[in-house]
Design brief:
The protein is mainly alpha-helical. The protein has five helices and no strands. The protein has helices spanning 33-43, 46-55, 58-67, 73-83, 95-104. It is globular, with a radius of gyration of 15 Å.
């Protein structure tokens, strides 16, 4: 994936539905790129995923997978497979994390 030049610091309007708890107009693409990427990786539809692929590199996505636990195992597995990343390197797929997650959500 190549990163395209981004015009401005704002997100397109069609992504507003993914940022329900914040003032959408205050989100800065450059300052909040990790937050934006995590949210769209987790909740985005096909259009949002397409937007991710146009505006972020595989390295950007891998960085999120390697350093952030706030992604569901299902989402992390999907992106690891899409990018050819060894799932043993994905933080939220580590055995310890999966065990602690089950303790919190005992259903």
């Amino acid at each position: 994936m190549r990163k395209r030049k981004i015009k401005g610091n704002t997100l397109p309007e069609f992504l507003k539905k993914y940022f329900w708890e914040v003032d959408f107009k205050e989100i800065d693409l450059r300052k909040h790129s990790t937050y934006i990427l995590i949210r769209l990786m987790e909740y985005g539809d096909e259009k949002a995923v397409s937007w991710i692929k146009k505006h972020f590199t595989g390295e950007d996505i891998a960085n999120v997978l390697f350093h952030f636990k706030g992604i569901s195992p299902r989402t992390a597995n999907y992106w690891a497979l899409m990018l050819g990343i060894d799932i043993n390197k994905v933080l939220c797929l580590q055995r310890y994390y999966l065990k602690t997650q089950r303790k919190h959500w005992n259903y």
